Amino acid sequence: MNIKIAHDARPQARTLLFAALLTVVLWFIPFADILTYPFRIFVTFIHEGGHALAALLTGNSVQSLSVALNASGETYTTQGGIFSQMFVSSAGYLGAMAYGALLLVLIRRAVAARLVLLGSAAYILALTFLYGLLNPVRYGIVPSLFTIVAGVTLALALGGAARYAGARVATFLVSFLAVQSVLNALFDLKTVVFLSSPFAANVHTDATNMASATGVPSLFWALLWAGLAFMILSVAMRAYAVSRRAPRQPDLPFEEPSEV
Fold it and tell me: Can you give the C-alpha Rg of the chain in angstroms?
């Protein structure tokens, strides 16, 4: 992926690089995963939300959405035809990757970080109340208390950051969310590829759902999703790196000094 970063993209690129390096460094610090745990839960909500949106787009209904303490998640929907099942099963990992890519593009296009945080807060809150609480009660399913607490807490935290954080902090937080969404999607796909191999234990995954719907081995779908995820990331990075005519993003923490 050969990408030349435009001059006016370099401040944003440095912010993004710092967010990525911080994420990698935290991986190697003992117990630092406690610091990234809320972001992991956030990505799980985005993943499960992808399944829910795909179900709605294909004319199905969402019965429940839950996120567990270990950051795994489940979304139960009605089943349509084979296309519907394939679309819903694929929308988790690819949805998380697409969400991270969207955040990258929004950062680059100078969309206010506070608006992005508010939009993310509203999305998490909607998923929590509609599919984590109301629909489970409607369909006779016991709602997950952790899902409700985690969803409301995340929404309040994102909304609070949008309201009270400085512009630079808000922009960095959006960058960090983008990095977390992209990297977690990639590492989750790596795990699915491993679990789909003939030598792995029989573990139920989204790729298993695809195999059941199509008769094609789950490893094929896991590899296909990984390839599509890299394509989404490539397109987003190219859009991120090209020059734009709009003024520079004013709220970046590592703005370049003006030339004289």
Answer: 19
Residues whose CB is less than 8 angstroms from the CB of residue 13 and which lie 6 or more positions away in sequence, other chains included: 5, 240, 241
Tell me the pLDDT tens digit for each residue of 71-130: 999 999 988 889 999 999 999 999 999 999 898 888 777 678 899 999 999 999 999 999
Q: Taking each helix axis from N to C terminus, what angle separates 82-108 and 33-57, rounded to the nearest 10 degrees?
A: 130
Question: β-strands 73-77, 62-67: how paired?
Answer: antiparallel
- Provide CB contacts within 8 A for 242, sequence distance 6+: 6, 9
With beta carbons less than 8 A apart as the criterion, state whether 252 and 17 touch: no
The answer to pTM > 0.90 is no
